[in-house]
Amino acid sequence: MSDIAQHVAVSDRVDIEDLDWDLARKHGLTDQEVESLKFFADIESQTVYYFLEVAKLQVARDPDLLTFLTMWNYEEYFHSHAITRLMEECGVKLESATERSTQVRKNARLKAKLEDFAQTMMAKVVPQRFVALWMFWGALQECLTMQAYEEVIRSTKNPVLAELFRRIAKQERRHFAYYFNQARDRLADNKGNQTFCRFIAKHFYAPVGSGVKTDAQSAELVARLFPNERIFEVMSYIERRMAQLPGMAGLDACTRWAAKIQPMLPADLRAASVPQIGGSKPSGGRAAA
């Protein structure tokens, strides 16, 4: 069975109908969990817009790529609905997942529009390099996404939230595996692709969602999930995973971003010390995929 066929065989919307909503309501959600869940739902809901932009490009006509993008979009879209349902069951008043995603996209920053334009131009001028970047970037972002879901699973006192996020994280791990394997194949023995991806990561890396949220919002959300020195542990872990790809050893885009955001964070979230970028980094600690 081919790589894409394996993904299609297990692809489905995340199952939530058997979750114990009474138990979810009994435990409730903390204020911090509500803010985090809103952010998760907003970012997951934007996948459909990313998909619509990429689907316009000629490079997306590759059958395997289009199949994966369709599956990825479908699963991510329902992650947003599932997270919204949990918040509603726990008494959080908010718009429907569809209404909220529409409003988030309507308020998308200029940065998101420039990103759409830039990817269109790259896809036309250097199509094969763009696909390599798409796969590399997808792996980079999904790696952080997995860490975020795992962190909530570890920290929450709500067993239903933990179970929902275990189910979502399982799908995110499959997405990461596809992106990672595709990136490895497209970077292998191709110095041009390697240099291109490193350049983009070095100069433009930011966690997914930074196009529709402000830099400060994205920074604080990540820092609240991974406060103080923990953010450097997680970012260092991601870099070690990405270093397994051809030509990506020593990439420090994630820890550079974590260092850059420190001044914009509330004092209680800042790291007491910032590690030497490009030199020694904190150990991986609790980070695990």
Describe the structure.
The protein has 13 helices and no strands. With 289 residues, it is an all-alpha fold. It is globular and about 55 Å long. The longest helix has 29 residues, at 127-155. The chain has one domain: Ribonucleotide Reductase, subunit A (Orthogonal Bundle). The model is unreliable at 279-289 (pLDDT under 50).
Provide key terms for this protein:
289 residues, mainly alpha, Ribonucleotide Reductase, subunit A, 13 helices, 68% helix, 0% strand, globular, disordered C terminus
Quickly give the structural class. mainly alpha
Helix content: 55-70%
CATH topology, what is it called?
Ribonucleotide Reductase, subunit A
How many angstroms separate the termini?
25 Å
Question: Rg, please?
Answer: 19 Å
Name the CATH architecture: Orthogonal Bundle
Compute the number of structural domains. Answer: 1
**Which stretches of 5+ consecutive residues score pLDDT under 50?**
279-289
What kind of sheet is the major sheet? none
- The helix tally amounts to 13
- The sequence of SSEs as H and E is HHHHHHHHHHHHH
By CATH reckoning, the class would read: Mainly Alpha
Question: Shape, please?
Answer: globular
